[in-house]
């Protein structure tokens, strides 16, 4: 194993998390081993333990970082949608959907959620709901926050499902070779659907979903 020098403890932590994330993307959280992380990061096994305490500590720290990055991307995209002109709103909303769970980091986030790794998920979701509610109020001032939470839940479950088994489901529904089954076109269709949702058309609910 070639040892690598890091300028600071923060740089060492980032290198460890980068290595752990790459392994999670390849084999999932269940396949994460401290020895494999140490080898990929170019460090000794005790260094990993020094920074994170245990394998679970490493997984939790990785879930925290991945979640924060995803939330930052999503909230930035929603903020851009808030200032978009009406004729650009569908494209802006499609971009919001496209930033969630994107690429390798998106897959890592989903697998970490499924593994039970702890993160500030509630705080992150609250930020997303807050901005999503502002966006809905720009379109329909009387919308209720509870309905916004339900819509965010619906969209999140759809996007997580796409990461886990989206290709198989699309193929089963006949979208595999259809242009309408492409990721970008589905995002745009979903964006149009979400922007057309009015509270008056939604079923009445009681309490949080």
Write up what this structure looks like:
- The chain has helices at residues 9-27, 34-41, 45-52, 55-82, 89-99, 103-115, 121-139, 145-172, 183-196.
- The chain has 209 residues and is mainly alpha-helical.
- It folds into two domains: 1-53, Homeodomain-like (Arc Repressor Mutant, subunit A, Orthogonal Bundle); 68-201.
- Helix 1 (9-27) packs across helix 2 (34-41), helix 2 crosses helix 3 and helix 4 (55-82) packs parallel to helix 7 (121-139).
- The longest helix has 28 residues, at 55-82.
- The radius of gyration is 20 Å and the shape is elongated.
- The model has no long low-confidence stretch (mean pLDDT 87).
Secondary-structure map with pairings?
Elements: H1 9-27, H2 34-41, H3 45-52, H4 55-82, H5 89-99, H6 103-115, H7 121-139, H8 145-172, H9 183-196
Helix pairs in contact: 1-2, 1-6, 2-3, 3-4, 4-5, 4-6, 4-7, 5-9, 7-8
């Amino acid at each position: 194993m070639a040892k690598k020098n890091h300028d600071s403890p923060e740089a060492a932590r980032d290198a460890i998390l980068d290595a752990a994330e790459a392994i999670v993307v390849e084999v999932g959280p269940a396949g994460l081993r401290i020895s494999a992380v140490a080898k990929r990061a170019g460090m000794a096994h005790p260094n990993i333990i020094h920074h994170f305490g245990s394998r679970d500590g490493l997984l939790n720290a990785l879930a925290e970082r991945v979640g924060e990055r995803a939330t930052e991307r999503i909230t930035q995209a929603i903020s851009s949608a808030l200032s978009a002109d009406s004729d650009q709103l569908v494209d802006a909303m499609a971009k919001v959907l496209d930033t969630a769970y994107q690429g390798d980091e998106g897959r890592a986030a989903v697998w970490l959620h499924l593994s039970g790794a702890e993160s500030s998920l509630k705080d992150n979701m609250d930020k997303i709901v807050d901005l999503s509610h502002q966006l809905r109020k720009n379109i329909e001032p009387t919308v209720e926050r509870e309905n916004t939470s339900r819509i965010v839940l619906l969209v999140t479950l759809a996007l997580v499902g796409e990461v886990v088994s989206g290709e198989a489901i699309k193929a089963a529904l006949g979208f595999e070779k259809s242009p309408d089954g492409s990721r970008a076109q589905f995002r745009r269709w979903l964006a149009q659907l979400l922007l057309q949702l009015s509270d008056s058309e939604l079923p009445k609910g009681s309490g949080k979903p």
